[in-house]
Amino acid sequence: MQKILSIVAMLAIGQVTYAQSIDQIINATEVERIEKILSADDMQGRRTFTPGIDKAADFIAAEFKKAGLQPVKGDSWFQEFAMIKPKFLNANGTLNGNAIPEKNIVALSSQSNIKVNDKSGWTKVNIGEADTLFPVVMRLLDSRKNYFVTVHEKHGRMFNGLKRFREQSFESPSNIVLVLSNETANTYSVEFNQEITRAPLKNVVGILPGKKKKNEYVIFSGHYDHLGIGKPNEAGDSIFNGANDDASGVTAVILLAQYYAQQKDNERTLVFAAFTAEEVGGFGSKHFSEQFDPSKVMAMFNIEMIGTESKWGTNSAFITGYEKTDMGAILEKNLQGSAFKFYPDPYPDQQLFYRSDNATLARQGVPAHTISTSKMDSEKFYHTQEDEIETLDMKNMTEIIKSIAVSAKSIVAGKDTPSRVDTKQLR
């Protein structure tokens, strides 16, 4: 009996030590410190292409370095790339011997001059009346190949939306020429001319190498850009601080990096990423995702707006695309006995699973989900100047971050591997 009691006592001591360890790293004081810096007025709302976002990037990189992460490239924590801003000049072409109206031609490309015909070897795709335009186009962009696409005239309004989409675009190896027509493309020839300018961007990325499964990756991410400075509100405040959106998610990523770096027990390689340019099209996460073989990414925890209570109150959050993999079930299993609860996304009509920074990898089958508490039907300060640190619940944020750390442990340790997203359902 004494032996059994001793074992029980040792286990109890171990649990207390574990609790103290996580509380020492992830606590409300640290949450507030990081959140306050990222959402401060001197960050100028962290808009892309401003000194404010560069200042935020430097701070995040310093936190990753302090945590003991390895730089993503050489001695730099910056993953640099460019957004292109194409200016349409002119377009012309023929389809099955008939002239194509200029307004019915769109190109998604980083090249100034695109010439393609039926002898060019590009893959032909038809987006029919029953298809959905944008998901198909995004999947083609993710493929790093060249496509000639005919689009059914039913999608005319959305096709015009592609013209607005291309006003700023991600520099990608894919080239896609789209023609609005109900005809099957037998013979075709199209030339598209545009003026290209490039604007530099950077994600902030740190690596914690794994041990036995170092070639398998688990990603923790959030976006650090926001809306910048705009028209003053009635109180005279012109800065969109973005405390919840998404300084709260980046705060979580930094603290998770500190936590796992001190645990030193990750069998899989952990990647911690703060994405740029989410607010202008998700270009940061798209570039980041293209640096990985999706078959080697075991899970992605994207964290977006966790500073306010969820619709269920404190000690709760939801997971987008919960039904698409068993990752949520794994997290729930690891949280058994705790007061915290993960729920399926309560806003399915908003299609959040494919609207956040997890989307690019999810479309490639990765169990990549976004964790959030945002009440998407009633979030009072969303995209307003009032999204400031005073509106957030530091204590609840702390519990959410700790719960992510605990619930992810078996995936980080390589003991659990979530099922993959069924990509056949994406068309």
- What class, by secondary structure content? alpha/beta
Q: What is the CATH superfamily label of the largest domain? A: Zn peptidases
CATH topology tier name of the largest domain: Aminopeptidase
Alpha-carbon distance between the two ends: 62 Å
What can be said about the biggest beta sheet? 12 strands, mixed
Portion of residues in helices? 25-40%
| CATH architecture tag of the largest domain | 3-Layer(aba) Sandwich
Q: What pattern of helices and strands is seen along the backbone? A: HHHEEEEEEHEHEEEEEEHEHEEHEHEHH
What is the count of DSSP helices, taking H or I runs of 4+ residues?
11
**Amount of beta strand:** 25-35%
The overall number of domains is 2
**Low-confidence blocks of residues:** 1-19
Total beta-strand segments:
18
- Average predicted local confidence, pLDDT: 92
Question: What's the overall geometry?
Answer: globular
Radius of gyration: 23 Å
Q: Would you state the CATH class of the largest domain?
A: Alpha Beta
